[in-house]
Design goal:
Helix content is 33%, strand content 23%. The protein contains 9 helices and 19 strands. Bound molecules: the ligand Nc1nc2c(c(=O)[nH]1)N[C@H]1C(S)=C(S)[C@@H](COP(=O)(O)O)O[C@H]1N2 and molybdenum atom.
């Protein structure tokens, strides 16, 4: 529930059964039960579980491992059900795993006094009435503790999940005036194994400090623009989406992305230009930053100039790839600023814009030693082949991506086995704010090989080979991949 997955493993198992029950049986059940069919099915699954648990409890009297086997088998069924759903995510493993571990721990906690009593009985050849009473008492106390804990966690989790489910429903029912184009064909180099140019929402990396994403109803949301402005503005969600919506491709990346890493994605975003809002508020002279605050209290400081520059196209985004922002990506509204790392710009669940000066505040990450300004660094990576791949001898395709948002990529070069730099072919992107795919064909002989890449920006900057860590302002260095041909 805390993870706010769509439904519990129990429901997943019920759905799995629905999938495999023959049509006639299902029809008969629906005829008899009407729309109670699903609750009844869940109840049946639960009753079956209950009897299997009781059985596992009985087995525990004889051996410690037999009930574990039962639990693991049950967990296996839950896992199968959870992972075969159409919208399965890796995270769906967690509730099942947590559940299985809980069963095992709780059973051994409950039966421990009984085990102790049994060893005593075996040693002493008999038991007194007091010993029986003692065993019963500690068992009942433990059962009470477990029951109370389960109830608390259950109620708390349900509360937590209920809110998110409601927001998720509001989100799905929203009809926003946005589009969802496919990736332009010319942007794609079409090499097998390369990341998709347009990252699907479900594959887009996630970074946030909140344990559970805030669940915010659009009706509850507002953005306050204040601080060094002539007129304070408070904007409701409706007022925001009634404004002119602009749309564009943008590649977002994280300052913590290591060389060759995957904390980067490219999507079609829809939103409202920030420069117009700030113009309405009237930014006062002397300001050089906007301190953005999220619903969950996270903050970031964004250079004011990047928000007021019309060429920069910074937006308050309301949609990602044609859908209202996913909750985890900042629903209902987040900020996006081309050319800046997320930690200084891409505030999710954003509710407050304070026009200010960098010298007057520190934000969440700058307080922890990360750089105040976070311009994206010119970078590239090799995606095909992957580290450790086996490729055939002869001509093979190599490919990857490069990015220098707002500046643009002029060229990508690769070097095979430390040889001279060669130019790769580039995909043609609609703007300089997205990553660029590159590809080349190389000839490889049998044996081990390595290939590295470097990008050259439209400012003639050549990506540096100097290796630096992500902290404090982004990693540098050439990405190299090792593979073998045979
Ligand atoms: N509220 C909030 N917004 C946030 C963050 C956060 O921790 N909390 N992390 C930032 C960082 S470091 C990055 S890289 C981007 C990631 O956005 P994504 O999760 O949509 O990919 O969000 C930014 N916005
Ligand atoms: Mo980040």
């Amino acid at each position: 529930m805390a993870l706010t997955l769509r439904s519990s493993p129990l429901v997943a198992v019920a759905e799995l059964i629905v999938q495999y029950v023959p049509g006639v049986v299902a029809e008969r059940a629906i005829k008899i039960l009407g729309h109670w069919d699903k609750p009844v099915l869940v109840l049946i699954v639960f009753l079956i579980l209950l009897s299997l648990w009781a059985w596992a409890g009985r087995l525990a009297a004889r051996s410690w491992w037999q009930p574990i086997l039962v639990f693991v088998a049950l967990g296996g069924v839950g896992l199968l059900a959870a992972l075969t759903r159409y919208d399965a995510r890796a995270l769906d493993v967690l509730p099942v795993a947590a559940g299985t571990v809980t069963w095992i721990v709780v059973l051994s906690f409950l039966t421990e006094p009984l085990q102790d009593a049994r060893t005593e009985t075996e040693e002493q050849g008999g038991r007194t009435v007091e010993q029986h009473a003692h065993t019963r008492r500690s068992f009942i106390i433990r059962a009470g503790i477990v029951g109370a804990l389960a109830a608390t966690v259950g109620i708390f989790g349900e509360r937590l999940g209920r809110r998110r489910r409601h927001v998720e429903l509001s989100r799905r029912l929203l009809k926003l005036p946005v589009t969802n184009p496919d990736a332009p064909a010319r942007a794609r180099v079409k090499v097998e194994g390369i990341s998709r140019w347009k990252t699907p929402n479900s594959r887009f990396y996630l970074i946030h400090t909140a344990i559970a994403s805030p669940a915010i109803e659009p009706s509850e949301w507002s953005l306050r623009i204040h601080g060094m402005v002539d007129r304070e503005i408070t904007l409701s969600y409706q007022e925001l989406i009634d404004r002119k919506i602009t749309e564009d491709w943008l590649t977002l990346n994280c300052v913590s992305n290591p060389v060759g890493g995957s904390l980067i994605g490219n999507a079609w975003w829809s939103g409202v230009r920030i420069e117009r809002l700030l113009a309405e508020a009237g930014v006062r002279a002397g300001a050089d930053a906007v301190l953005q605050t999220s619903w969950d209290g996270w903050t970031c400081g964004t250079p004011l100039a990047t928000l007021t520059d019309p060429d920069r196209k910074a937006i308050l985004a309301i949609a990602m790839n044609g859908e209202p922002l996913p909750i985890d990506h900042g629903f209902p509204v987040r900020t996006l600023v081309p050319g800046l790392y997320g930690y200084v710009s891409a505030c999710k669940w954003v509710v407050d814009f304070e026009v200010s000066r960098f010298e007057d505040f520190t934000a969440y990450w700058t307080e922890k030693g990360w750089s105040e300004l976070g311009p994206v660094k010119l970078a590239s990576r090799v995606e095909v082949p992957d580290n450790g791949d086996e490729v055939p001898v002869g001509a093979i395709q190599i490919a990857g991506a490069a990015w220098a948002q707002t500046i643009g990529i002029a060229a990508v070069e690769y070097s095979l086995d430390g040889g001279p730099w060669q130019r790769a072919a580039l995909g043609r992107t609609p703007s300089d704010d997205t990553w660029v795919q590159w590809k080349a064909t190389v000839n490889v002989e049998e044996g081990d090989h390595r290939v590295r890449a470097r990008a050259i920006s439209k400012n003639d900057e050549v990506q540096t080979g100097v290796e630096r860590d992500t902290r404090p302002d982004g990693a540098t260095g050439w990405h190299e991949v090792e593979f073998s041909a045979g």
